[in-house]
Amino acid sequence: MDADFLANWTTQMRKGLLELCVLASLKGRRMYGYDIVKQLSAIDGLVMGEGTIYPILSRFKKEGLVETTLSESPEGPARKYYQLTPRGRVLLTKMLKAWAEVRDGIEAITVAESLS
Amino acid sequence: MTHSPAEVELSPEASARLDDYLRQVRAALAGAADVNPDEIEADIREHVENELHDAPRPVSLSALEAVLTRLGPPSQWGATGDPGVINRVKHLLRERLRGARVTVVDKLRIAREALWSGPEDWRLAYLSFGVFALGVLTVFVFPLALLVSYILSRAGLAVAKEKGIELGARKWLLYPSVVLVSLALLIALVAWPVALGGWVGGEVESATNRVQFHEGTDPVPAVGSDWRELRNWQDRQKMKERLASQVEDDRKLLAMVPVAPEWAPVAAGLFVGAGALVLWWTILGFVSASFPQTVRAVFTPFCDRFERRHGLWIAGPCLALSVAWCAVAFDVVSAAGLI
Fold first, then answer.
1. For residue B160, what are the contacts with CB-CB under 8 A and spacing of at least 6?
2. Among candidates A37, A51, A75 on the partner chain, residue whose Cβ is nearest the Cβ of B3
3. In sequence order, what are the beta bridge partners of A71?
């Protein structure tokens, strides 16, 4: 029962955070899709399957939060790079602010608990 | 450090496994309307090629399996979080229907543009006349061809009217079926009481024949006549007995027609036909005066100037004639003692 609840809760939390992290990884730069996957996969407990990131990127592209550009690569065929659109940048700012509020709130509760 | 994707040489087992995995990817994303499955499949293929860039060739199944394991099961990728089979099927059906609708709308738009612009103005006229000619030549499909040709002609006339196009020579292509149908409709609508007069005339003629037969002299065949003549005479007598009551009614009917018996059928037919005609035309006149736009619509382009007053022109005299006819009919029936 507890294990099931934890698994479900972890999945839900991870899903939301992964979307935030995908956008955050593109903040101020453009990145090759494969590199985004590798970067986020390196964060412990965040990515359960590397393949989950590609649908997120595709959805963000359809929603106009990111855009892609093809750039020639010296090592072979052209690569597809992702970067934030103005709308994506605005949304990322709001998401980071919301995340910071939640994080600070949780920390405040846990710190108060540990002090009491 | 990443590598540019390139075609990776896979062992047959690994190649089959990758194909199967990509099939799972497509199936898992079929219901997700918010992603582009083709793009994701290309991304996955590129990811695999990047991962296996340094692997020994041909890439073994185990090496590929390790990459696919890290990618995770596609069934958990549903971008909307709802990768159920039913939802995917519904999505696919919706997509197909949308595609079919777009196709139909496009075709209709193209057809409409073709019919509404340039020399295609002639197309309906040619089509109408072609169908009409086909009906005339084949005879047995003429009613259907006439109907189709009439509809096409009406469409052609409507298009010309809406676009303000002078019909010119096109009327020779458009009018045949319109004239024929309008004429048939007009005759059926206006002249059916004549048929009633004809039927009454026929009935009176039968009555006259029965009375003359019943009253005619028919002497008994002489003794020693042929036995067949005797039998025919007996048959005629039996027939007269059977018709006795009917003949009484016939006499009353003929008594109402104050002309010589040989003229009775014509007189009765004309009288009843004329009466029905003026009564019906009175009704038609008032109805057409009340709904002139219907008359114009049904009999376009021949009655495009029909107005309420035209209906009243028909209804007025016919009403007067109807009153006169009713008065005469009343006298006739009274004289016959039926009232």
1. B121, B166, B167, B170
2. A75
3. A79
CATH number at residue A103: 1.10.10.10
In sequence order, the 6+-apart residues with CB closer than 8 A to the CB of B24 are B73, B74, B75
Determine the residue among A10, A31, A47, A58 to mutate to test chain B binding: the one whose Cβ has the most chain B Cβ atoms within 10 Å. Answer: A58
Backbone angles phi, psi at A79, to 5 degrees: -110, 155
- Residue from B95, B127, B96 nearest B111 by CA: B127
Using an 8 Å CB-CB cutoff, list chain B residues near A50. Answer: 47, 70-72
Using H for helix, E for strand and C for coil, what is the string for A14-70? HHHHHHHHHHHHCCCCCEEHHHHHHHHHCCCCCCCCHHHHHHHHHHHHHCCCEEEEE
Does residue B79 belong to the interface with chain A, where contact is any CB pair within 8 Å?
yes
Q: Do B44 and A54 touch (CB under 8 A)?
A: yes
Q: Tell me the shortest Cα–Cα distance from A75 to chain B, in angstroms.
A: 6
Q: Which residues on chain A are in Cβ contact (under 8 Å) with B25?
A: 51
For chain B, percent of residues with pLDDT exceeding 90: 27
**What is the dihedral angle through the alpha carbons of A66, A67, A72, A78, rounded to the nearest 10 degrees?**
90
Residue among B285, B292, B295 at smallest CA distance from B322: B285
Q: Look up the domain containing A89 and give its range.
A: 2-115
How large is the ipTM?
Answer: 0.86
Contact B4 A62 (CB under 8 A): no
Calculate the CA dihedral of residues B284, B286, B287, B291 and round it to 10 degrees. 130
Q: H or E element: which one contains A82?
A: strand A76-84
B173-208 pLDDT, tens digit per residue, is: 889 999 999 999 989 888 888 889 999 999 889 888
Report CB contact under 8 Å: B6, A77: yes
pTM of the model: 0.44
Question: Which DSSP state fits B164?
Answer: T
Chain A interface, mutation test: which of B8, B29, B36, most A Cβ atoms within 10 Å?
B36
Give the H or E element holding residue A83: strand A76-84
B131 touches chain A (CB under 8 A): no
DSSP letter (8 states) at residue B310: H
Number of domains in chain A: 1
Compute the distance between CA of residue B258 and CA of residue B210 in angstroms, rounded to an integer.
18
pLDDT digits (tens, 9 = 90+) for B163-176: 777 888 888 888 99
Nearest to A55 among B47, B73, B77 (CB): B77
Residue A28, chain B, CB below 8 Å: the answer is no
Round to whole Å and give the CA distance between B292 and B302.
13
